[in-house]
Amino acid sequence: DVKVTQSSRYLVKRTGEKVFLECVQDMDHENMFWYRQDPGLGLRLIYFSYDVKMKEKGDIPEGYSVSREKKERFSLILESASTNQTSMYLCASIDGTGGASGYTFGSGTRLTVV
Amino acid sequence: AQKITQTQPGMFVQEKEAVTLDCTYDTSDPSYGLFWYKQPSSGEMIFLIYQGSYDQQNATEGRYSLNFQKARKSANLVISASQLGDSAMYFCAMREGRSGATNKLIFGTGTLLAVQP
Q1: Chain A residues whose beta carbon lies within 8 Å of the beta carbon of residue B99
Q2: Where does the pLDDT of residue A107 fall: very low under 50, low under 70, confident under 90, or very high at 90 and above?
């Protein structure tokens, strides 16, 4: 089974801190994604990557950056955390062919910025 | 721009009854894929069912079926014989473009389903 691992389940950070959220997948998937989930808003795409060192902005990239130096790892970076970035963050991956197999999600990181 | 709309924030259903969760989508691309995910209170996202835009028949997976009406741009999820374990948040999602392109997946706002005994 594909596994997508997010390094932290819960995280509390102070306003202004630089925050790294890590995501690792173990099935050699080309495509990786970062979403944030907020009540009433569903999942919104922050950034995605379809290859090493390749990245594209999603719908809400402001305040975030990403890094993909190795195929298996996709990091989400909050350059200067703010309280409005308090949210659940979900990482997902899928192989390059896409298709009906669906996307595999990590278990999420609940980030609280105080 | 592509968009997914789920108009039911929450729903109740009696155990053993069928329930339909609504989803409409908007895209100008003739090639797309539609997905349904279940998110229980534990937070994990569980893939339920997939429908491709060129699929002639409605997708089915066990108790789940997708009522695909292409002209109306709707992709409703039907759960038959509801069980208490079906209580969860349900998300409709769409991948625009042919499979293997960017594979970007866009979600609706979700429907919270509560199954009553």
Answers
A1: 97-99
A2: very high
